[in-house]
Design a protein that fits this description.
The protein has 556 residues and is α/β, with parallel strands linked by helices. It folds into three domains: 2-128, PAS domain (Beta-Lactamase, 2-Layer Sandwich); 135-291, Alpha-Beta Plaits (2-Layer Sandwich); 313-554, TIM Barrel (Alpha-Beta Barrel). The chain is 44% helix and 24% strand. The chain has an eight-stranded mixed barrel with strand order 14-15-17-18-19-20-21-22, surrounded by seven helices. The termini are far apart.
Amino acid sequence: MRDKAAQYEFEEFCHVIDGFAPCMDDYLYFYDISQDLYHISEKALERFVIPANHFSDVTETHRQFVYEEDVDMLIADLEKMVSGEKDEHNIEYRWIGKDGNPIWINCRGRVIKDENGNPKYMMGCVNEIGKNQKADNISGLREVSAVADTIATFSRVANSGYILHLGIDDFKSINERFGHEYGNFILKSVAECITNALNIGEEVYHVAADEFLIISYLTDDEVDGKDLYNRVRNNVDDFIEKNRYQTVFTISGGVLSCKKLSGMEYEELIKLSQFALSQAKKQGKNQVYFFEEEDYEEFLRSRLVISTIRESVSSGYEGFEVFFQPIVRDSNDESPYAAEALLRYTLPNGERISPMEFIPLLEESGLIIPVGKWVLKKAMAFCQRVQEVMPDFSVNVNVSYVQVLKSPFIVEFFKMLKDYGMSPSSITIELTESGELDNSIHIHKVWNNLRQFGVTIALDDFGTGYSNLMNISDMTPNVVKLDRGFTIKALKNDFEKTLMESIIQLVHSLGLKICVEGVETEEELNYIRALGPDFIQGFFYGKPCPEEEFFETFCR
């Protein structure tokens, strides 16, 4: 009779748990210590690898779904509960999820004793402590993930509307300067600025960190999206002024209209709105960007190319080639005294992509470091071969600032010279610029070391992008190379021709040499020669070509 009563009591508790379970996010459980029976909310089976929501042999069964490293800790605590040494259970450890990964939980429980004071039952709940929050207490807003279904429905059925993804620009610097407590104050204040800018039919949610998402059901007119962004920005500006300019910051936004949602699921929609915000920041911040499919396709292509290049690097630089283009002295002897090593890349599908496309991606991903090292080795091996028939021959190699700043470039460079038995004078380093020049002590130390040991330094693409007279002063190169674009202008315009003459004279007055790039015809050659450059490079003398073709054409 006593066993039947105990069984009845256990089943009654199970019914209570099953009744409350649908009303809770946590998982309720009941442990009958005396009968060694365990029952947990059935929805826990959807999340964890628990064999059943009702089982016996409790300690051993837990071994099946508790993370291996945490089993001993759990069993030690359970033994204290069963022995009566403890009355309360409250520990954080990991259960195994359906995907095989550990999930952090907090398991709490309380012991109920019988009339003799012996542990009889333990009841409590399990909650995931790493689970996404549904609201943000700092901003006072609901988390966007908590309304994922609502947003997905909006994207499928709404006839008008848009999403505005907002982010505080350079928020990290606010935390670094004033501390996280003040940063939280800024987040709360910005949330209020956004909320106060909304009209009926517009809702705001917290996304993550310093980002917010507004859903507008009103219209998908871009003018309205920009108007909402400006209302928010004006409120932020007013807040900054009322806060006595203690900190000054801006806010960027990305707009995704309902017309472009196409019934997307939540994750896809958030991904595209995040891209729109990133574009606004990339284009200068403190502005709004409207999502364009073409921009996103370009972004996806860049990610694909980076992924493909990474695989190529891992598989022995498959798809990469080094071509060589002759450089000629401005004299009657038109045989090349040097060649520039130029990197080429072909995708696995056979598409050869422009260096203008893949070089920035190499620098962005950091892959320019191993690839640049590979190019140096190829160039030195080529130079070593050509010098067997042309002893004074040298090779120009482009080097990125990323290589210099983020790798032991000097050490590796001189080791390669030693390995290939090359003289430092056989190599000219051309600096390729991908952004503002970094005039750090490290950069100057590298250039000084190279020059000190007889390596020639060339400033590449002068007259375009970031190249200017200040760079000649900062870098003190041996050679200045005038870009093809500059050459074309000089051929068509008297003012540009005068400017080129002046630059050549200036460079020579500093004791430096100058190389004009992009000469393609005999007419251009005669025109440029009259200006007095030291070296000429261009299709007139030869297009970039593979090593064997160069050797057969120019070295035999």
